[in-house]
Amino acid sequence: MLGKPRLGFKNPPQGAMEQPALVSALHRRIRELEEELRIEKQKNERKNDVKENTLWPWDELRNSSPSPNARKQPKQPRSPTDVRGSTFKLASQVLVLKGKDTFGQQTSLKRVLAESKGRDDRRGDDTPILQPASHKTLWKAECAEHSSDDEQQLPHCPGSIGRANLTLQSSCLSPNTSDRIMSTKSRTVLETSPLAGSQIPIISQQVMAYLESAYCRDTNTFSHSDAFPSLVTRLCEESEKVLQQEPLYARVATPCYVFGDVHGNYADLSYFLSSLISFRNLSYSSGNILFLGDYVDRGEYGLECVALLLSLKLSAPERVFLLRGNHEDPLVNGDIRHYGNTSFLQQCTELFGVKTGNVIWKHVNSTVFKNLPLSADIDRKIFCTHGGIPRFTGGTDTRLADLQDPDFPRLESFSTFKDEKGSSKPWVRMTCDLCWSDPKDRETGMDDFGFADNNRGGGTICFGKAAVDDFLSSTGFEYVVRAHQEKSDGLRLSKSAKVITLFSSSDYEGHRNGAGLLFINTVKEIRMIIKKAS
Q1: Which one of 123, 250, 254, 454 is most buried, counting C-beta atoms within 10 A?
Q2: Interior CA angle at 531 toward 104 and 118, to 5°?
Q3: Distance of alpha carbon 470 from alpha carbon 479, whole angstroms
Q4: Rg of the Cα trace of the chain?
Q5: pTM of the entire structure?
Q6: Are 259 and 275 in contact (CB under 8 A)?
Q7: How far apart are CA 59 and CA 200, in angstroms?
Q8: Looking at the annotation, which residues are catalytic?
Q9: Which residues, 6+ apart, have CB-to-CB distance to 463 below 8 Å?
Q10: pLDDT tens per residue, range 377-415
């Protein structure tokens, strides 16, 4: 007799069991124990997931039901920055950068927001009041000095305007090097790959090389040569071809960096990009980059910032997205009386002379700014634009469908605020709302849909919490990310933390403010980065 089995068989062998039968029973019991251990491990992992409050994808969360153990968990206090039912979540820490140091320090988001709000409240809103009539008069006065013949006399650089086919041997590896690191078959496969024949614009490389050689980081100054106007002209012509093929509503995927206003601050722009773009090549960087507009005016180097951003756009059109702001309008960036030496038009005339400067200025507005997208979304959950949400006047909410309408016109100017009440598609009004509107600090004087007149004047609007909630509910978005307003540390949360305002230009007009941007990763986490004032 073998006696009682040690492993506790359900049907223990009795008598003189054959050895093969015993081995088979042992193997079967071992498999049963392994399966029991696997099931128990899965149960423990699910319990840990519930305790750690792991972020699940929204599809899995919608189709799954909470376990009984999850219902027994005590309710945790909700953070004021945590939007209930949201897929994306604001990180509790902010990366704060100081000076030229790229190694930041983690700081509590609540502390940063409290300090920033206090400084903003003490300073008040110094946003200028818009005066469309004076803008329009100045536009005509500045353009009347030159005939239509002058507009056609754009400077050109000798040589071909085109792209370079970068093959495996000509761009990356010499023939001898490729022989040493790969076999003949591997080289044949790579040479026939679409990646091997990818096209990179020559003008993009030339402009970035020129900007790097002309810019002195220590003194934050440029030393331009006579080649710059021809490079800008060619860059605008190539950019127009790319931008005209893209819709006015962009789709952006995570991971993604989001910039607010730049306003000609080349020092901050190059500082951030040098940290974000690995090896100074977007092909080796992990995230997309979205800019929310206002690249010119109020800063020293508006044209240089536009040239750098367009070069990046041409290098990777599917990775870089440039939205349009209210300053990408000739009625605004041509207002020398209001902006003085920091006006985009004034900067162009100082660089190239009155005649060539006016031609370059009009060329940038008509070929580039006119074709920039007005809004975008990130993973179809975060709505991004320069100013804010378009107004709603009742009935069926078609605002998102209108923004995605392929017939949405590409307006060279939209700050005329003409009356479109009789029009079925108020394109100009909607463009103005996207680029000019602001969140309202005090919820007073609002209409039935949560909108009110803006103190900027000229028919602009501001929106309250009710307007934001209705827009998010009808469109399925979770956040609104916008720019358009200077903030002490470059960012501000408002409307129950559903509206995020970014400003990416520090020391703006001597205000000693910081610059901020967002990083939105693939696990649906919104992280904030702040560069303190120098």
Answers
A1: 454
A2: 115
A3: 12
A4: 29
A5: 0.71
A6: no
A7: 38
A8: 327
A9: 388, 389, 391, 437, 438, 439, 440, 450, 451, 452
A10: 999 999 999 999 999 989 999 999 999 999 999 999 987
